[in-house]
Design a protein that fits this description.
Number of helices: 14
Low-confidence stretches: none
Protein name: FAD-dependent oxidoreductase
Distance between the termini: 52 Å
Structural class: alpha+beta
Largest sheet: 7 strands, mixed
Oligomer: single chain
CATH class of the largest domain: Alpha Beta
Organism: Nonomuraea zeae
Shape: globular
Helix content: 25-40%
GO molecular function, one term: L-aspartate oxidase activity
CATH superfamily of the largest domain: FAD/NAD(P)-binding domain
Number of strands: 21
Pfam family, one: FAD_oxidored
CATH architecture of the largest domain: 3-Layer(bba) Sandwich
Amino acid sequence: MTEFRADVLVVGGGLGGVAAALAAARNGAQVVLTEETTWLGGQLTTQLVPPDEHPWIEAFGSTASYRRLRDGIREYYRSGYPLRSASRSLAHLNPGAGRVGPLCHEPRAALAVIDAMLAPWQAAGQITVLRRHVPATAQVDGDRVTAMGFHDLETGGDVTVTARFVLDATEAGDVLPITGTEFVTGAESQADTGEPHAAATARPDNMQAVSVCFALSHHAGENHTIDKPDDYAAWRAVAPEWWHGPQFGWVAPHPHTLEPRRYVFTPNPDDDPTGIIADQSKDPGSDELWTFRRILARNHFRAGAFDSDITIVNWPMIDYLGGPIIGGTDEQNAAHTAAARAQSLSFLYWLQAEAPRPDGGSGWPGLRLRPDVTGTADGLAMRPYIRESRRIRGQYRIVEQDLAVAVRPDGAVSYHDSVGVGSYRIDLHPSTGGDNYIDVPAWPFQVPMRALVPERVRNVIAAGKNISTTHITNGCYRLHPVEWTVGEAAGHLAAFCVTRDTEPQQVTATPGLLAEVQNSMTGQGMELGWPNVTYY
């Protein structure tokens, strides 16, 4: 049995976990950071989801450390890639010229920058990173977690980490059931939350679809068609009654109106990447699938350097509706995860062999999976994109009435205990319970500290998508910059509690302590409030 001791244990190496570890170390804490896979970065890396960001991200609305991450990714391309001079000179270089956000990039770029951000702290012995470690057990004394046990997937051995504070930054809130921290899953009832878009009846198993993303390039005249999956016919027949046809097709419900929406697919358009508008408030851009989440635009680079763009398939056609991958038995969760991967492979085959083309033909056989981009043998993402986690029962629950434009015409609630900001529409994908999209405007919002702090357990802090939102408000608190902000706030709070020998519940209840930690946060580049901006 290998044992580690730390002030702060951060479980999960996604964006929230990395931000938490950096913030805790920056404020003097000894940190152990664990991650299930070989890559840190979560949404940006193992899940293949380029940043989905609000329109003001280049100027404000994130933490200083998140901006350092973004700056580092741009420098990764400027220093190592054969950029054209016009592209190299762009202050806001978007390597993929993707429309989803102004910084679409390959997962390995984020991985390299994250590793570099952690490196000096690792060299100093202040952060220890344990990759391929899965949380398995917990030692609990009353309302406190004293240690957690992990299974080392590489050696098969077991590891124990003793820590004063445990931060759950896992993608699905995995620490919560292990430690006995109270949590909820799925959809709450309207009687419970009072939310206009909540369901009439609570459905703990009704969660947003997961998606197993993959990367593609296109090589005209070549044939990269995969073998037809054995279960292809079953996936080809999936057609939810509200989908306007088969899920494998170019027509799907529009998230805002639920009316039929026809998508366009044009591999390798000869566009000017320096002229792409990546601002969803002005040009959503999501109708054109190839460019929406393109992560490498060949026309940014010296002629002949790349023979194809690279794009990420994270489209409605691969939203897995068959059931949640959390909350069931291990066997059920594994079966749904495997089914989601099977759906993505079948959709790839449909793209290569059967998808209707504008010229009247069928399929693009030149589409090639990119396992070199994903870091996996099969070319699919290491992990499913998990939109909705287990959520703590926190001291404060963020509800739709706090920020929905239709309910609050003058702006979102201003929280006295804000530890960060974010902005996104309330955007819920179709769900495992049979719901269509729920997508409504929301004001730029704050993150209340009380939403990170459990009602009962004294030394567990939520550090990712597992904060105390509802099924509805999770739809706007789940994006990249918000997850980073939540993680950074959790790490900062934990280190503050170590230094002051206090607990999160005491901080939220004591105005002087709360003001002290908020002042420390703002001094380190964490924005706690918004200027006068509107919704989109």
